[in-house]
Amino acid sequence: MQAGGGVKEFVPKIVVFCCNWCSYAGADMAGVSRMQYPPNIRIIKVMCSGRIDPIFVLMSFMEGTDGVLVTGCHIGDCHYINGNYKTQNRFEILSEMMNELGLEKERLRLEWISATEGEKFANVVKEVVEQVKKLGPSPLKPVIE
Amino acid sequence: MNAAGPTGGHIVRPSDGKEPKKVAWIQCVGSRTKERPYCSRVCCMYATKEAIITKEHTPDIETHIFYMDMRAYGKGFEEYYRRAEEQIGVKYVRGRPSKVSENPETGDLTIRYENLDTGEVGGLEANMLVLACAGVPTDTNKELAKILGVKLDENGFFQEKNLPLAPIETDAEGIYLAGCAQGPKDIPDSVTQASGAAAKAIMPIVEARGEEIEEVELPEEKEVKPTDEPRIGVFVCRCGVNIGRIVGVPAVVEYAKTLPNVTFVNEDIFTCSDDCRGRIKAAIEKYDLNRVVVAACSPRTHEGLFRDTCREVGLNPYLFEFVNIRDQCSWVHMNEPEEATEKAKDLLRMGVARARLLEAEEEGELSVGPECLVIGGGIAGMTAALELANMGFKIKLVEREQELGGMLRNLYKLFPTETPAEEAIAPKIRAAYEHKNIEIYTGVEIKDIKGYIGNFEVTISKKDSEDVFNISTIIVATGSQEIDATGYYGYGEYDNVVTQLQLERMLKEGTLKELKNVVIINCVGAREEEGKTYCCRFGCGTSIKNAKYIKEMYPDANVFILHRDIRTVGKKGEEYYNDVRANGVKFIRFSKDKKPLVFEEGGKLIVKVYDGLLRTDLEIEPDLVVLTTATEGAKGAGALQKMLKVPIGAGNFFHEAHVKLRPLDFATDGIYLCGCAHSPKGVVDTITQAVGAASRASIPMGVGMIKSEGITAVINPEACVNCGICMTMCPYGAIRMVDGVTEVITAVCKGCGTCVAACPTGALEQRHYQNKQIASQIKNVCRLVVE
Amino acid sequence: MNIGTGKCYLAWATDEKTREKGSSGGFVSAALAAALDKGVVERVLVLKKHDVFKGIPTVTSDPKEVLDCAGALHMTAINLAKYVDSDVRIALPAKPCDARGVIERAKRNQVNLDNVYMIGLNCAGTMHPVKARKMVKEVYNLDPNAVLSEEISKGKLILKTSEGEKSIKIDELERQGYGRRDACKYCDINVPKMTDLACGNWGVPRGRKATFVEVLTEKGREIFKNAVDAGYVECEPASDKSIEIREKIDQAMKKLAHEWHEKLFEPINKLSDSERLEYYINAFAGCTGCGACKKVCPVCPCGDDAKCTMTEFQSEVHRIRMFNMIRLLHLMDSCIGCGRCEDVCPAGIPLTMIHMRFTERVQKKLDYVPGIDMKKPPFFETELKEVQK
Q: Closest Cα partner for C210 from C235, C190, C189, C187?
């Protein structure tokens, strides 16, 4: 397999990290409301966005995903008091790391999505997929002969 | 504004669906009137919040709020209001509009108003107008009151038994009040009162607590070691047509068979149905499955069901993994069946990979004994202590002063009912001393508190001796104090400038000399730019009540209240204010930029204030100036905060776990707060909070234990270097260091995993969300690298 | 004399041998020895000279051993922070990067700062021993093993052998690709203001064998006063001129450091994002994952088990090792730029510059400088901060 799929149209794969209480429920809400969005995302659920080790994001890129979307409860709504504060702080550091690395930081996005914001979830996914399609395959994709 | 609402979160006006450029709010519509004299209490902040969200949604929309008094009285409200005005750019206009007219062609509105700060009369053109209508009692209150045999007040809300002293009870035994049934209130106050009502409601049946609980009998769990070869059963659900119509379920089933360690695969129409769950159970037993993966709907609705299914045949529920191929696959990719099928395969592959690494987890239990420490022997502490003691819990009530009673010992009568303060505390002091479940320590300091819920070790000191005891829960009721007013308005310099507390004492002791002119200045050192940025909530009521007393004692005296906003928000507060106003006390508003001046000239004390309404400076020669000062947390609050490791904020007030949803708890289990330790408040709110806090503390003590899910953090001491980042991260105080060694207090851990994310060594792991489990999912998203 | 915090002094060892042996009046050795002698501290951590290219970190409770270690070692590159065992009261001579390492370790609970007395040393840089040996051979035309002692004076590196001495300007050495380690060239923290006493020869009048000492903390005052009271040290207040000269030299060194920074970073600065990514991929391609960089890193608190070492997998197909990525990540907020990682890297990866490039972005964005005070590192932050976009 060739990085980026050769002549075939580029079909990005995007990891979405969701917290159990808000954004995963937001994604469910998008489903219940039958909001259509592109099938490029793969959701990984954790209890709190504060569990999302920046290493998971780096690992996702190293393993060949083209974009990562980190989601959590809105600021002030965290089920665990302030887990998303820590997510935000780590994200700031991580996005600087991507900047320096030269990996387009548009491949990484942080969004707060509540349990009722199914439409927002769908819209954010649409935007991210659109954005990553524009950027093309991730330059960090493993090289496999 | 609501993204789930009819306009999808867009603000459009009803007439033509266009987005407005200018939105106005009018406050107090139908309230604070002759007909409905009360304040609806929530609208000032509602309007402010709406204006902020409007501006955040579309920054160039102009927002104008017409108001009478800005009632930002609650915790954090004043700061929120300031942010709206100064940073977001919400425009506030003091004044009640006189007329609103519509331009029939454009649908735009003209609002005629007088600005009470500047005296200007103007007309504001707006595209949309939002009315903050009075909160009114529910239509059915009358009928319900009749059925219940309880009274309604003159406004149609339910009547409490006694306003400052029994705000939750009704006249009828066994019937209690919570939330807006009693009168308009916001979420924190409603949640607080509801907690209190729950405590009251259990009292008549407290003896029966814990009886008639049936335990479900389950077979013994079979042992599954991490080293055992995984034997995975995969159950793919068609959910009728919900999944099956889009996702090629047979293809997914075939794919599942190719995945490593998958021993058994099944397809069903409704996996959640009774007979299907029966088949899962049979398969677990027949094929000796040690992992189960269900690819169906959402774990949020069905995970519990399938976990139980596994457990019913002896499989640990944490060996179950859910893959969502409906809500997040078939329902959202309805026009792309091929892609949806591929995605379902990916999701299943990720789920199976994770399932391989799942481990059996135990749920934790920690016993919580029936003993509670109440810190602070004021009205809040005594109320909480009595409430719990009446439920049968053992209380240690600790007070640093020599006597119980707290702040109320200094006060004369209480706003707005004029109940003597003595009447509020004396019965409670007596009851506390007489109660067999309450042990009282006065004149003592808390030296140290160690431990956690169920296991607190408390050291107190009295003169030369120390005492150590164990306790299960703690209620913080340490109260507040007046700030030192030195430097404000000549306090400390001129003898006839006193604080409200000094005035209360004079009133109580009857030492107030004859007076001709009295000036009361409110918001002294409060609502400042920095430091004491908050409102003290009870200051307006106190000043009005004391003005009334002075006026009653010396009817010829001129009594002036210089204020910024009048915030009489509690029940009966507004009515009291109106009476006092009608009886000749003069109210003069000043702005934060033009504060009054107090100085001496020719041996005479002079107060100079700019009256915005008259647009002129006034000079008063008072023989007494009374300062309504800001309050701050009690002086021991800082030390206590360090012992309890709970958050504290501006003005030395403690921070609750969640402003709205958990106003009486700390984030740390087993520690609760009430009264002025939380934020400044009057007696009604304090008593309500105290009963509420007792209610909260009674839950783990009543159940006798707390449970933790099998998702808590665990530490590998071999790898841990005790760097302490996990302790910093944990909002629950669930990680501690004992003799330099880091430990997780499992019973206190809530399983958020933020410590695990922060740990540099990987010594910390979150059960069921282990690093390697999440990594396996990540690696299987693309699966470019085959292991 | 009444010694006060915030004040500057000229001080020297009373013992002539120590004064001669020390690089500028022997104050540091004398004060450390006095601290041990009088029980102000229980241990002293010093760099014991093996030869001019090698110092061995040594913890001692013998004042004599401390005095034997007098004199600087410019051609060694050790960071002492990882050797500080603060279970007992311990003092050490600390270059700015030693001190910053100690402070970062204190933030991570590896050091109890209350027990640590840091006598700071002004530092203009050190040399890598392997490169230094080569330099001695190639530029000085000397047998490295024949070098008995070294000294830096007036911008020159003076080497002494039994045959006599030879000196070459450091500028010249650096022009030829030798001289100080890259990390030192662009380090702009030369005066260790984060320690208890800042010592050095900047500001010492010509011809005087004395140390310029700034008393920075109460602990520093205690060490200083003890040395004076015990008769190990004599002192006088530093003149305004001395203070001014020290400041001028510091400023000049800072300026030079900034020029080096620009010069050394320039080639990477010029690259586009995708070129930079390729640069990093290639730079790390030689990494064998041996973990030496992590082992010597004074900021890293981890033992052998760490996320960076445990998350390694399938590296042949991945474009960069997770080990490298996680090291970069974990140092994003707190790298002090000491350069130890690069010193020990067998693959010759320019790790100092790479780490600095990453960390400088975060430190700038979050207004955080590691190792100068006890301010929480950004990864420890639990509150939201307004971030400069």
A: C235
- Sheet with A67-72, strands from edge to edge, namely A41-46, A14-19, A67-72, A108-112
SS3 annotation, C331-357: HCCCCCCCCHHHHHCCCCCCHHHHHHH
Q: What residue has token string 């969300």?
A: B769
- pLDDT of B463 higher than 80: yes
Query: Which of A15, A48, A64 shows the shortest C-beta gap to B784?
Result: A64
B3 vs A32, A81, A119: nearest CB: A119
Residues of C in contact with B667 (CB under 8 A): none
User: How many Å apart are CA A53 and CA B753, to the nearest integer?
Assistant: 9
- The alpha carbon dihedral of B412, B418, B420, B421 has a sign of negative
Closest-approach residue (CA) in chain B for C104: B723
CA torsion sign, C78 to C79 to C85 to C89?
Answer: positive
Q: Say whether residue B727 is in contact with chain A using an 8 A CB cutoff.
A: no
Cα distances (angstroms) measured from residue B659 to each of B476, B654, C146: 16, 11, 74
pTM: 0.85
Contacts of B784 in chain A (CB under 8 A): 1, 63-64, 141-142, 144
Which A residues 65-104 touch C at CB under 8 Å?
75, 82, 85-86, 88-90, 92-94, 96-97, 99-104
Taking an 8 Å cut-off on Cβ atoms, the answer to whether C318 and A142 are in contact is yes
User: B607-652: per-residue pLDDT in tens?
Assistant: 999 987 788 899 999 999 999 999 999 989 999 998 998 888 889 9
DSSP structure string for B522-565: EEET-S-SSSS-S--SSHHHHHHHHHHHHHHHSTTSEEEEEES-
Write down the number of H helices and E strands in chain B: 18, 37
Tens of pLDDT, residues B530-577: 889 999 999 999 999 999 999 999 999 999 999 999 999 999 999 999
Sign, Cα dihedral of C261, C267, C270, C274 = negative
Are B778 and A59 a contacting pair at CB < 8 A? Answer: yes
Residues of A in contact with C326 (CB under 8 A): 55, 58
Distance CA C53, CA C76 (A): 5
> A142 and C319 in contact by Cβ < 8 A?
yes
Q: Do B781 and A15 touch (CB under 8 A)?
A: yes
How distant, in Å, are the alpha carbons of C78, C142, C253 from that of C170? Answer: 20, 17, 13
Contacts of A27 in chain B (CB under 8 A): 327-328
What would the two tokens of residue B563 be?
């204020």
Per-residue model confidence (pLDDT) at position C388 = 42
Subunits next to A (3 or more Cβ pairs <8 Å) are B, C
Shortest CA gap C294–chain B (Å):
12
Q: Does A55 touch chain C (CB under 8 A)?
A: yes
Q: What is the pLDDT of residue B649?
A: 86
CA dihedral B180, B184, B186, B190 (to 10 degrees): -30
Q: Is some CB atom of chain C closer than 8 A to the CB atom of A16?
A: no
Nearest to B778 among A29, A44, A45 (CB): A44
pLDDT classification of C24: cutoffs 50, 70, 90 = confident
Q: The complex's ipTM?
A: 0.96
Q: Give tens-digit pLDDT for B425-443.
A: 999 999 999 999 999 999 9
B420 membership: H or E segment, kind and range: strand B419-420
Contacting residues of C for A101, CB less than 8 Å apart: 276-277, 280, 328, 358
Give how far B176 is from chain A: nearest CA, Å.
30
**Nearest Cα to B303, choosing from B332, B272, B344?**
B272
- Pairing mode of beta strands B741-744, C54-60: unpaired
Distance CA B396, CA B386 (A): 11
pLDDT in tens, A12-45: 999 999 999 999 999 999 999 899 999 999 999 9
